[in-house]
Amino acid sequence: MSEKMIRQLQGPDLEEALALVWEVFAEFEAPTFSDEGIEEFWSFIDLEYMTMQVGEGAMTFWGAFEDDYLVGVCAFRGLDHIALLFVDPEYQRRGIATSLVKKAVGDCKRLDPSIDRVTVNSSEYARPFYEAMGFEATGPLTVDSGIRYIPMMIKAERE
């Protein structure tokens, strides 16, 4: 039986995490994006930029590991917005993304119990996943700087 673990990621982990994010994005998301959107996403996940964001506390990353292999990444901007959620294709549909989101929300609520909602700008590909978790669209499909997304929100459960 394999060992599974979710933990916060720090500076040394970011390069591996962002490589996984890019791999999954390139396979599942990029085909629906314009060149502008792909470039915008690439600049967002820049290692130097993300290292600075994590260092300033603006972004927090969690990683899901199976036998010490990084299989999923979740990042929050602030304490209430999912900025990144990507799972290795070989490990999708195993509850990893759900576990990552639940762990991240739980950690954020411990830091700020007043958090009453979590938002995400979901891709069309990920929309069914977020809907299954209880997220609801708060607006139509939007394109901003070539990035296609559906704004969504879920009420955070009270502890």
Layout: helices, strands, pairs:
Elements: E1 4-9, H1 11-29, H2 35-44, H3 47-55, E2 59-66, E3 69-77, E4 81-87, H4 96-111, E5 117-122, H5 127-133, E6 136-137, E7 142-144, E8 147-155
Parallel strand pairs: 4-5
Antiparallel strand pairs: 1-2, 2-3, 3-4, 5-8, 6-8, 7-8
Description:
- By secondary structure, the chain is α+β, with helices and mostly antiparallel strands.
- The chain has one domain: Gcn5-related N-acetyltransferase (GNAT) (Aminopeptidase, 3-Layer(aba) Sandwich).
- It is 38% helix and 31% strand.
- The protein has five helices and eight strands, in the order E-H-H-H-E-E-E-H-E-H-E-E-E.
- The protein has helices at residues 11-29, 35-44, 47-55, 96-111, 127-133; strands spanning 4-9, 59-66, 69-77, 81-87, 117-122, 136-137, 142-144, 147-155.
- Strands 1, 2, 3, 4, 5, 6, 7 and 8 form an eight-stranded mixed β-sheet that branches.
- A hairpin with a 2-residue loop joins strand 2 (59-66) and strand 3.
- Helix 1 crosses helix 3 (47-55).
- The chain is globular, with a radius of gyration of 15 Å.
- The mean pLDDT is 91.
